């Protein structure tokens, strides 16, 4: 009996601690339930663990549209353990992206983006702060200014002319056209020449780089279970997804490191002309010049250069080719609009209807 009472006495402190912690947990849940949801937007019922993932189909945009009709233009969805604000109207988008832009300035982090973009050393996924502002300033003033974009007009015209010649050649022999592939190649060649100063589709090493870019774009757009349900992230390893991301990231890093070192070794200057061949200064020339200057006001490291280059490829290849593809699709779906466009083009004598060797410049195309 004495031993029993002694054991009870020893157990009581643990029991007291357990009961205390249990009531603290209940109080926290109660307060969160009655205060944490006051200002939250409407949200559909969610399942444990999955949240609202079960309500999304393969056509995510249509699923979100259907939910927005029921819950409004501003709704809260839970993708696993990730609360996500979904905007479905112009006014709500303006409120988020313009009126309260600083609150929403940081991008959601994903494991894939961190792996590809050197833990946020680029512009697209870097957290809002001094580093991001500095990189944005470099991109806006040095890479994407009107003067800089205009300096690449000859590249765009040359690649467009080559595309027209290829289309004309295939039409002359009644061969079918795959415009999707042609648009992808056009966008990649324009971006490669503007960014790296060379046409990747014509080089063995460059072709490998284009294949890496395709995998890069595909992996960036993939959604894995581990992103939304962290304790299931081991599935990314079992499926081979993580190994594939690591392989593509390593190969991209090796390629970009090689071209950066080659540019540094070539001894480029910043006069607007490349020393070697007199061609217009490309993005890589500008970034390596800033890297070599290493001034106190503006400085970047090699990983930032590689991150910015990947930003340009991610934002300038798939988006452009997809836009061109959908434009042609819509024209084919609306033949009356296509006829109207053809009539306008004939009236303006635009380069699309001129002989290929007399194609007019993009300056002559009215905007």
Describe this structure in words.
The chain is mainly alpha-helical. Among the domains are: 201 residues, Orthogonal Bundle (Cytochrome p450); 34 residues, no CATH class. 62% of the residues lie in helices and 3% in strands. It is built from 16 helices and 2 strands. It has a two-stranded antiparallel sheet with strand order 1-2. Strand 1 and strand 2 form a beta hairpin. Helix 8 runs antiparallel to helix 14 and helix 12 packs across helix 14. The longest helix is centred in the first third of the chain and has 34 residues. The radius of gyration is 28 Å and the shape is globular.
Summary tags:
367 residues; mainly alpha; Cytochrome p450; two-stranded antiparallel ribbon; 16 helices; 62% helix; globular
SS-derived structural category: mainly alpha
> Helical segment tally?
16
Question: How many angstroms separate the termini?
Answer: 96 Å
Shape: globular
| CATH classification class of the domain at 130-330 | Mainly Alpha
Poorly predicted residue ranges: 1-8, 268-278, 351-360
Strand content: under 5%
What would CATH call the homologous superfamily of the domain at 130-330? Cytochrome P450
Kindly report the average pLDDT value.
80
Main location: membrane
InterPro entries: Cyt_P450 (IPR001128), Cyt_P450_E_grp-I (IPR002401), Cyt_P450_sf (IPR036396)
Subcellular location: Membrane
Protein name: Cytochrome P450
Helix-strand layout with pairing:
Elements: H1 2-35, H2 60-71, E1 74-79, E2 82-87, H3 90-99, H4 111-116, H5 130-143, H6 146-151, H7 153-172, H8 179-196, H9 204-220, H10 225-228, H11 234-238, H12 241-266, H13 283-293, H14 302-316, H15 318-333, H16 335-348
Antiparallel strand pairs: 1-2
Helix pairs in contact: 7-8, 8-14, 8-15, 9-12, 12-14
Organism: Fraxinus pennsylvanica
Keywords: Heme, Iron, Membrane, Metal-binding, Oxidoreductase, Transmembrane, Transmembrane helix
Cofactor: heme
């Amino acid at each position: 009996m004495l031993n029993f009472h002694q054991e009870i006495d020893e157990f009581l402190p643990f029991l007291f601690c357990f009961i205390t912690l249990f009531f603290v947990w209940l109080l926290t849940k109660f307060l969160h339930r009655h205060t944490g949801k006051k200002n939250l937007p409407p949200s559909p019922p969610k399942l444990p663990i999955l949240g609202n993932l079960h309500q999304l189909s393969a056509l995510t945009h249509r699923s979100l549209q259907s939910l927005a009709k029921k819950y409004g233009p501003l709704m809260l969805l839970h993708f696993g353990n990730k609360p996500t604000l979904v905007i479905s109207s112009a006014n709500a988008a303006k409120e988020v992206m313009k009126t309260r832009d600083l609150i929403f300035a940081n991008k959601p982090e994903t494991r894939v983006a961190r792996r590809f973009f050197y833990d946020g050393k680029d512009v697209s996924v870097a957290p809002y702060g001094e580093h991001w502002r500095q990189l944005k300033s470099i991109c806006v003033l040095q890479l994407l200014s009107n003067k800089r974009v205009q300096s690449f007009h000859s590249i765009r015209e040359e690649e467009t002319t080559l595309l027209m010649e290829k289309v004309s050649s295939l039409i002359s022999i009644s061969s079918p056209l795959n415009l999707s592939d042609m648009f992808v190649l056009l966008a990649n060649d324009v971006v490669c020449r503007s960014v790296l100063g060379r046409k990747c589709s014509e080089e063995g090493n460059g072709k490998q780089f284009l294949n890496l870019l395709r995998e890069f774009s595909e992996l960036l757009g993939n959604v894995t279970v581990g992103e939304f349900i962290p304790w299931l992230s081991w599935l990314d390893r079992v499926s081979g997804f993580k190994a594939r991301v690591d392989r593509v990231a390593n190969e991209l890093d090796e390629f970009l490191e090689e071209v950066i070192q080659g540019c540094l070794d070539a001894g480029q200057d910043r006069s607007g002309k490349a020393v070697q061949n007199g061609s217009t200064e490309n993005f890589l020339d500008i970034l390596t010049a800033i890297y070599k200057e290493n001034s106190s006001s503006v400085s970047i490291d090699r990983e930032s250069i590689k991150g910015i280059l990947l930003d340009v490829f991610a934002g300038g290849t798939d988006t452009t080719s997809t836009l061109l593809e959908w434009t042609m699709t819509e024209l084919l779906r609306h033949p009356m609009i296509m006829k109207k466009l053809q009539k306008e083009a004939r009236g303006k004598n635009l380069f699309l209807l001129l002989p290929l060797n007399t194609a007019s410049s993009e300056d002559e195309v009215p905007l």
